[in-house]
Amino acid sequence: xxxxxxxxxxxxxxxxxxxxxxxxxxxxxxxxxxxxxxxxxxxxxxxxxxxxxxxxxxxxxxxxxxxxxxxxxxxxxxxxxxxxxxxxxxxxxxxxxxxxxxxxxxxxxxxxxxxxxxxxxxxxxxxxxxxxxxxxxxxxxxxxxxxxxxxxxxxxxxxxxxxxxxxxxxxxxxxxxxxxxxxxxxxxxxxxxxxxxx
Length: 198
Hints:
It is a single chain. With 198 residues, this protein is α/β, with parallel strands linked by helices. It has a single domain, classed as Spore Coat Polysaccharide Biosynthesis Protein SpsA, Chain A (Alpha-Beta Complex). It is built from 6 helices and 7 strands, in the order βααββαβαββαβα. A 7-stranded mixed β-sheet has the order 3-2-1-4-6-5-7, with helices on both faces. A hairpin with a 5-residue loop joins strand 5 and strand 6. The longest helix has 19 residues, at 27-45.
């Protein structure tokens, strides 16, 4: 079975990542936190035997810790998050039968969650991992369906529910993974950083 894992990351630059964290802990510490989450995401991704696609926010960094031997490096394209995810899924599902996309700020993400996601795609059209804030941290599909990215306010707490509504209107099947938290505020980091040490 041809499977692909898509990772969306922001190029880790001072003052450009985790701005809400930076507002309380400072830009330098926020950058270090983000780099720690990137390292965790990379470690988890490497434990899954799939093709891996790394989509940078701004430019491909050939000198970073993401080895080209293990990751196909690309750049996100699109006016908003939905358009960028749609573009990535469109590209990757051209060459693979199942694809899952995750972000890079989920300390609780682990190999077993990703394995479950891929397994569920053998019996469901979609798999989705709800985030505590009303969004989602993971989305997977077996065939490209751009409709799930349309008409959604990406910063709102309604993203997950709106996406489920669209999937149901399409009369497609879906499986929900455990709800996890992402890191937006300093208190999120204080609560979740323990997962990076596991």
